[in-house]
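Minimal example, chain plus adenosine-5'-triphosphate.
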Amino acid sequence: MKKKILVVSSANMDFVMRVGEIPTAGRSMIESRTYRYVPGGKGANSALAFSRLGADCVFCTRLGQDANGEVLKSLYDGAGIDTRYIVNDKDYPTGLAVIMVEDEGANRIIVYPGANEAVCRADVEAALDCNPDAVFMQFEIGERAILDAAAMAAERSIPVFVDAGPARADFPLAAMAGMTVLSPNESETEIFTGIKPDTEEHCIAAAQKLAAMGNAKYIVIKLGGRGAFVWDTVSARGELIPSYAAEVVDTTAAGDAFTAALTLEYLRSGNMFRAVRYGNAVGSITVSRAGASTSIPCASEVDAFLAERGIVL
Ligand code: ATP
Ligand code: RIB
């Protein structure tokens, strides 16, 4: 049976420019390569990943009553996402992200949250009626809604998977009762723990600190081209699972797709190490393509990727 995932998170329209150089303060620069509007937002990217990878995905978010909101909603509907619990907010515009992508594919992102900030307890309570197998969240909506969603999921014994981006140093991780997975990237790990996960020893130290702060069963630190470090807090065992080589075009949404993929594969197999390898395959494909929602593969593309490389999960 298909797994049903409730994504309680953000939706944005991304305004994307490719840049050769990031201007310093006070400098203005002409960059005459193309710009694009691409559907994005951490929650939406993950919701699309769940749907494309074979889950039933229910998306709880807020969009503005504007043209961007209409474009995003029809994209989700077309992808088979259950959009019944998306609220069209009358007070705020749809979230917008300004993204600069450098030549080697690295990005810099500033998010105007708009309607994402208005997601609230009542929205989540309504969406929980769908009886999901798991609740998946990021930190791109308001803190109160995230904490309420975690508490309501715990009351209903629904496992919670958290992609810890964007990081807020003062986020009360301790109030997130009973996470199955907490997954930050390198910079988010450093913001939460003060430890740069640049060696295996530092990954262990950071994972132990995150486990103590957040009471999660697994900590999975996303390490970009190095892969991901998974720490099992019950057995106190960790492993660095290397990425699969990719020609990097644009890393946007790699983390969102990775964490969605590992969540789904963990729910299917119950094996976190296998789930991280599946996440690495999805992340590797995502970085080899441009944009956010545009770069996320479907299940058959991941299967072909694994088969071509002779990878057994
Ligand atoms: P984002 O750019 O979306 O913010 P992130 O910083 O949250 O991403 P990353 O650690 O950059 O997350 O990437 C997530 C996963 O994608 C990695 O764990 C890895 O599996 C894959 N990945 C990222 N960069 C590369 C790369 N250069 N080569 C191969 N795989 C990669
Ligand atoms: O993780 C990538 C996403 O972060 C982008 O799509 C952008 O909208 C921001 O939310």
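Residues 9 and 142 are 9 Å apart (CA to CA). The mean pLDDT is 96.
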